[in-house]
Amino acid sequence: MKARAAAKRKTTRPKEPEPRARLLPGDRRAQLLLLGRELFSVRAYDDIQIDDIASAAGISKGLLYHYFGSKRGFYVATVEEAANEMLAATKLDGVLPPPEKARRSMEAYLDFVEQHAGAYLALMRGGIGTDPEVAAIVDRTRSEFVRRFVSNLGLEEPRPVFQLAARSWIGLVEAASLDYLDRRDVDRATLMQFLLETLYQILMTAMRLDPDAPLVLLGPAALGTVTLEK
Q1: 167, 146 in Cβ contact below 8 A?
Q2: Does the reported pTM lie above 0.85?
Q3: Residue 143 in contact with residue 83, Cβ under 8 Å?
Q4: Helix 132-152 and helix 71-89: axis angle, to 10°?
Q5: What pLDDT, in 10s, does the model give residues 167-190?
Q6: Any alpha helices (H) in the chain, and if so which ranges?
Q7: CA-CA distance, 218 to 143, in Å (whole number)?
Q8: Over the stretch 93-146, which tens digit does the pLDDT of each residue have?
C-alpha cells in the first residue's frame, strides 16, 4: 500500500499553467499602449528597457518589435494615442452659449486629467526631450485646442492677439493640471475657478489690445453671469 502511494506521488505531474489568452492584433496593440501610458507616466524614458516592457506585458520582445519597431516607436505611439484620446474626450457636441461651453470644456478637460492621469502625463512630459515626432504630436494637440478656443469665441478669421491669448491660456492650463496631479494641495473646484477666472482676465486683455474683434465674451468669475460690452 505504501509503495503504491509513493509511486503515485512520483508519477503525479505538477499542474501546468493555463495558456495565456490569445488577443486579436488590434486588442493586443491597445493593451500595449495602455501599458505604455502606465510605464512612461511614472518612469523616465531612458530608465525603461524593451525587456521591462515585454516582461510587464507578458510577451516576447519580438512581438513588441513587430507592433512598434523599437522602444522609440512604442513611445511615440503611446503619446499619439494619449493625444487622440484627450481630444476626443474633451470635444463637445451641440451648440452652447460661450460661457457654458467654456465651463463644460474645462470640466471635460479636468475629468480626463483625473481619470487618465497616466495618459496625460505621458503626453505632457515627453520623455525623449526634443524628439521631432513627439514634439509634433504635442504641438498638433495644442493647435487643436487653440482652434477650438478661438472658434468658441465666435471668431471667423484668425486674429493674432486672440491666438496669442489662446496659446498662453492653454499653456497655463497644462502647467496647472500637472501641478494639480503632483501636489494635490488645492481641490478640484478651486483649480476650476482659477482657470476660468484666468481665462476671463486673459480675454479682457485681448479685447483691450484688439478692440475691433467682433466678440461677445464671457462674463467674470462665474463665466456666464455678465456679458461684457466693448
Answers
A1: yes
A2: no
A3: no
A4: 10
A5: 999 999 999 999 999 999 999 999
A6: 2-11, 25-42, 50-57, 61-68, 71-89, 98-115, 117-124, 132-152, 160-183, 188-209
A7: 22
A8: 777 777 787 888 889 999 999 998 988 888 888 666 568 888 899 899 999 988
